Amino acid sequence: MRKIKLVEVRSEIAAGTRGASMGIDALKIASLDKKSNFFTQFDPINVPDANNFLWKGNKHPHGKYIDGVYQVLKNVYSTIESLRLEKKFPIVLAGDHSTAAGTIMGIKAAHPDKRLGVIWIDAHADLHTPFTTPSGNMHGMPLAMVSQLDNLDCKVNEVSPETISYWEKIKKIGGDFPKIEPGNIVFISVRDTEAPENHLIKKYEIKNFSTQEVREKGIEKIASAALEKLKDCEQIYISFDVDSLDSSISVGTGTPVPNGLTVEEAIQLNAELIKDKRVCCWEIVEVNPTLDTENTMAEAAFEVLETTTKSLVDNY
Q1: pLDDT at residue 35 above 60?
Q2: What are the E-state strand segments in the chain?
Q3: DSSP reduced 3-state for 76
Q4: Which residues, 6 or more positions from 12, have their beta carbon under 8 angstroms from its beta carbon?
Q5: Rounded to an integer, what distance in angstroms lies between the CA atom of residue 176 and that of residue 160?
Q6: Residue ranges in 172-316 assigned as alpha helix (H)
Q7: pLDDT band with cut points at 50, 70 and 90 for residue 89
């Protein structure tokens, strides 16, 4: 069995709504309701967050709480780098999706010579920058951070020098170079994008398998095609945002979007993808029980987590 390490990141400062920091505990409650022993099987590591910045007020309209986000990303990066150097397989349970940048930075720092591919299962492309963001929420920026993109071609915001300074520091965590090439990103079920993100998707020819394609071709073919698209990558990281699920299911998340995956599709997709031996880290994010009733979102998310982990163990 791979040496699996659970990594818990209770950060929510980069989300637009409060409560994602409670997502991990909601997953644990879901496991108890299912009478599952999942959380007794693996020793968790708790990464320090910077949620206390929320009490200080936001000074950065185009990169909200960017000073706190910078701290969290450094913490996540160093944790993941250490685990990968120890040949551990991190399963990351995180609040807001910005921390995925720290995960990618850590994977790359441990093995800088290995090309890293990313499978991003999400309703959103998360390719915004402080120069293009409509909201300022930094959970919409992690893939731009790790690709070192500013996307000034599509600039709409006048960003303060202090915000730009933090943005530059974030892009350089783990070394001043792109941690991934944008062409080595594969999107699945991304369906809520803005023009600046569409510009980058087109420019770098980033493949997006729509929910409709998943339905028409079937899970196995989509998983196979996604992995084939990353055939030149020696390592693959999978990030699963629960808002990839249809909004009829994903009430307990900050930004639900219609026309998403069913729980069964998400379970099968992640379980299939993680069989690939190049996959070195898997992550689940954005469960927010404060937006939910009866912990429905966390119960669905826990099913994805448990089945994906079992697939990893069974196929090692």
Answers
A1: yes
A2: 4-9, 44-47, 89-94, 116-121, 185-188, 207-209, 235-241, 279-285
A3: helix
A4: 18, 19, 20, 21, 49, 51, 54, 95, 96
A5: 22
A6: 195-203, 211-217, 219-229, 263-273, 296-314
A7: very high
Tokens of 51: 């949620």
DSSP secondary structure letter of residue 287: -
Alpha-carbon 191 to chain mean position: 16
Distances (CA, A) of 120 to 1, 109, 142, 243, 282: 25, 20, 11, 12, 10
Residues 296-315 have a mean pLDDT of 97
Coil, strand or helix at 8: strand
pLDDT in tens, 158-181: 999 999 999 999 999 999 999 999
Q: 3-state DSSP call for residue 114? A: coil
In the sheet that holds 44-47, the strands lie side by side as 44-47, 4-9, 89-94, 279-285, 235-241, 116-121, 185-188, 207-209
Sign of CA dihedral 268, 296, 241, 72: negative
Whole-structure pTM value: 0.98
Which residues lie below 8 Å from residue 37, measured CB to CB, with a gap of 6+? none
Token pair 């898997």 in the structure block, residue: 282
3-state helix, strand, coil in the chain (%, to 5): 45, 15, 40
> 3-state DSSP call for residue 308?
helix
Rounded to the nearest 10 degrees, what angle do helices 66-85 and 100-110 cross at?
40
Radius of gyration of the chain (CA): 18
Nearest to 155 by CA among 165, 146, 144: 144
List Cα–Cα distances, 5 to 71, 185, 216, in angstroms.
Answer: 22, 24, 35
pLDDT at 1: 53
Name the pLDDT band for 200 (thresholds 50, 70, 90). very high
What's the rounded Cα separation, in Å, for the pair 173 and 93? 21
Is residue 34 predicted with pLDDT exceeding 80? Answer: yes
Task: Give the C-alpha separation, 266 to 170, whole Å.
Answer: 31
Torsion over CA: 288, 69, 80, 243 (sign)? positive
